[in-house]
Amino acid sequence: MRATAVGFAIACLLASARAYGQGAPPAPHEDDAFDFMNVLADRHLHDLADEAWNAYGQFTYITSFKAPFSPPYTNANGAVNSFTPEYERGFTGTFTLFFGVKVWHGGEVYAVPELISEHALSNLHGLGGAIENFELQKTGSVTPSVYRSRLFLRQAFDLGGETSTKSSDPMQLGGAQTSRRIVITAGNFTVLDVLGKNNVLGDPRQTFFNIAFMAHSSWDFASDARGYSFGATAELYWDRWAVRVARMAPPQNPNTLAIDPHIERVHGDALELAHDHELFGQPGAVRLLGYRNRVFSGRFDDAIAAYEADPSKNAASCPLGSYNYGSTNFDAPDFCWVRKANVKVGIGIDAEQYVAPGVGVFFRAMYSDGQSEVDAFNSADRDLSFGAVAKGVLWHRPLDVTGIGLQLSSISNEHARFLAMGGIDNFIGDGKLGTRGAEGVVEGFYSVNLLRAIWLAADLQVIWNPAYNADRAGPIVIPAVKVHGEF
Amino acid sequence: MIVGALALALGSREAAAQPAAQGFAFERAYPSAPGAGWIVMDDLNIPDELGGALAITLGYERNPVVVSGLAVVSDALHADIGASIHYARWRYYVDIDTALAVSGASGLASAYAYTAPSLDPSGHPDAITDVRLGADVRVLGQPGDPLRIGAGAQLYAPNDNRANYTTDGTFRGVIRALVAGDHGHFTWAGQFGAHVRPLDDSPTPGSPRGNELVLGLAGGVTLCPCARWGAVIGPELYGASALRALFGSSTTAFEGLLSARLEQRGAGQRVRIRLAIGSALHHEFGAAEWRVLAGVELFGHAGS
């Protein structure tokens, strides 16, 4: 056991990969923005075009205010997962350092420690695909904690083609790259660092606050409760085409911090096909993403069938030691009776198109089978989002950012039936579900740049049908502000 | 069967009656600042020019916490990642230690109940222990001089859980006087200071007793003063002793390392590879029975 743990640790370290709490990779630094590496380069102390190392950092503070709303009920039948109706303020504060070192030709190692302090609205319960703040870690607390978000090796193999410049950025060493290449990433990271990236949406720390715009809500990508995991990805770039594959380790139990190291038995696989193009002289891209998870989870049908066959197999009577969400509802089904290795699949499309310099539009949609519980991300089975993001190039403030977007997410019939019977799917479950509706969020923000390194942002979100419950429709109004700095 | 049950119950009651030991930061080989040359000591070759270093050090230690034969912490594997910036004699650094695996045995020892840590990458995939912030300054002497004198201070910000034996759960600090020098092929370094440690778990055996004296000495020879690479090999001796029971048998830890480093010479950014193997000279108070360390460091400065 000890040898296994030590061996796994060594393997993880040597085969490190990259991960990022709840998400997306950091955005490239603007050339004219302030950062430490630019300062060194300006003084001829560092070569940004051929880096042996780099170091970046960021801090982000987001505070959200939930205006009261008046649902007809909250937490019916002893449930604890409803989005609470009273006024509330939540926040997250993060501080991240990004270190990168070139270890040999084509080989780069990245380490990313991160600090977080947080308090989520409604204790993070009650929203399916539209959680108000992408920074919210499912295991964070007000007391700051430091963790290793990423430690990974990236190895590139040049296959020829045109040579282009790779800019110096967080988790990217400056240098040259060819248009035809293979890139292997292995270790501790999030799959969102490699797959599912949308350049218009970019880094959520610079754009939308809501998690709905960070990734497909219904892509239940394998990760621990912070959004990171261990695994490997491979990318093949062939001029305008790219193919990306990933295998990541899932959590031992849904949405827990502990990772199941038996990646040969349980895993989250993903395949992405991407094509870059130009439309009317402006860049764009289309990506198809499919995933297949084989994880230790419960199916809605199985949980319902177990309860209907034997009502003693309910949510309040879970076997001692089994993983459950603490429901006290004796009349609801629960996954604790039926968890086993199950497969979940989904397929989605992601498109981005710039329509003017610095102005882009995006579109995302995904359909998952919706047969089993959420394992690592959001309680959503389908999602659709679109919107626009603009940098202030047109009004001579190129580092300002503004955007507006809409996302809808929904659940399968089996999922809805499970919730209607009082079941809990990790973060959602109002105790009953009378009228099902798509959960939606519309969000707009404006981010003002100060001193080339700090952004102050104001944001407004309107959410309806929280947890797909049209009887508790809302709307829920959530204004928020953000301070973000990069160095 | 009844007798057995009674015995078990009595045994359980006896165990439950024992005071429980709490965890603490057991590490004794605090890695030197990134760019400081040695594994534990500091070569004080802090240039005046602006520069810095990035370092990763992987370490394994065996039986660092043994109480009356009970190996409470028997195996620990960690990766230490650090970055430093130096300018005008000063070095500032941050050091982040990732505990990859920590394990041991639970049981009763010296009338205390010990619960072994059980930390592994799957259960704690992102564990980081205390974060160290430090500053060192070269007060006298120039890089390469036979005598250099400096000082340093480190602040440990608590992180992780005491039960993992990776943190005291409180802020703590180290202030040190540093000396170093070079005489031809011989190079040496030393430190003397205090570990300001609020945690005092006395009389729990093996546990911290508050503030500590820290000291160390290292010496080595340059084996290959080549144009592109140089190798330095030599011993490093270091230890700590609780001030309230100075040099007491159970409140003092001493270790010795045989360390070797291969350094790239010349201009620009350079690489330093560090290896060390060592054992306890006084196997108490957190000194590991034996340990191995390996690290890679990227360092340089303007004009180098």
Tell me briefly what this model is.
By secondary structure, chain A is mainly beta.
Low-confidence stretches of chain A: 1-23
> How many distinct folded domains of chain A?
1
Helix content of chain A: under 10%
Report the C-alpha radius of gyration of chain B, rounded: 21 Å
- The radius of gyration of chain A is 22 Å
Adjacency order of strands in the biggest sheet of chain B = 1-2-3-7-8-9-10-11-12-13-14-15
* Number of H/I helices of chain A: 4
General shape of chain B:
globular
Write the CATH architecture name of chain B: Beta Barrel
The CATH class label of chain A is: Mainly Beta
Description of the molecule:
The complex is a heterodimer of chains A (487) and B (304). Chain A has one domain (12-298, 339-486): Porin (Beta Barrel), CATH 2.40.160.180. Chain A has four helices and 16 strands. Chain A has helices at residues 2-14, 36-42, 300-309, 413-420, and strands spanning 53-66, 88-104, 107-119, 145-166, 175-189, 229-238, 241-248, 267-279, 282-297, 340-356, 359-368, 382-392, 397-410, 439-450, 454-464, 476-486. In chain A, strands 1-2-3-4-5-6-7-8-9-10-11-12-13-14-15-16 form a 16-stranded antiparallel beta barrel. In chain A, strand 12 and strand 13 (397-410) form a beta hairpin. In chain A, helix 3 crosses helix 4. Chain A is globular. By secondary structure, chain B is mainly beta. Chain B has a single domain, classed as Porin (Beta Barrel), CATH 2.40.160.40. Helices cover 5% and strands 54% of the residues of chain B. Chain B has one helix spanning 2-17, and strands at residues 51-67, 70-87, 90-103, 107-109, 112-114, 118-119, 131-140, 148-157, 172-183, 186-196, 212-222, 229-242, 252-264, 270-282, 290-301. Chain B is globular. Chain B starts with a helix and ends with a strand. The model of chain B is unreliable at 1-15 (pLDDT under 50). Classes of the chains: A mainly beta (487), B mainly beta (304).
